[in-house]
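4.2 Preliminary Data

To establish feasibility before requesting continued support, the project team ran the inverse folding procedure on a target of 143 residues. The structure was first converted into the token representation described in Section 3, and no sequence information of any kind was made available to the design step. The complete token record follows.
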């Protein structure tokens, strides 16, 4: 029985993700300003991370890097009148100020409606802990 050659599937070139500014352009000015403040806070808290737009998820995601891999740990998900500052392993976070929302098995978020909700003293520890949990999960899974 002879096999016919496999058909070549035409693939469209990978669509380049928009820049953060391009992604945020479609949101109201106040949401863009809140997102910019959160981006600054995340980068000041964890300077050695990468930021990328995930258009399918409609969010800006953050990864912390090891020698071989990167680990997704938090995100900014804008909506028309608020933002979710989300944490991939949010159920594992220490929520001393009881500001985390969500009821899924893993992800939690903080709802940001105004600049008054961006309290560095509350958010920076969550951001740093989320990054450390992402790294620890990697160590546990590979040892």
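Position-by-position output of the design step:
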């Amino acid at each position: 029985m002879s096999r016919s050659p496999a058909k070549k599937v035409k693939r469209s070139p990978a669509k380049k993700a928009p820049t953060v500014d391009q992604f945020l352009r479609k949101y109201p000015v106040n949401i863009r300003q809140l997102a910019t403040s959160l981006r600054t806070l995340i980068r000041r808290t964890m300077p050695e991370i990468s930021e990328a737009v995930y258009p399918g998820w409609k969010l800006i995601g953050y990864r912390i890097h090891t020698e071989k891999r990167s680990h997704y740990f938090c995100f900014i998900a804008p909506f028309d009148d608020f933002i979710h500052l989300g944490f991939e392993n949010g159920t594992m976070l220490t929520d001393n100020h009881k500001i985390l929302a969500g009821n899924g098995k893993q992800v939690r978020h903080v709802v940001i409606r105004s600049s008054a909700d961006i309290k560095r003293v509350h958010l920076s520890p969550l951001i740093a802990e989320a990054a450390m949990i992402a790294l620890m999960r990697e160590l546990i899974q590979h040892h």
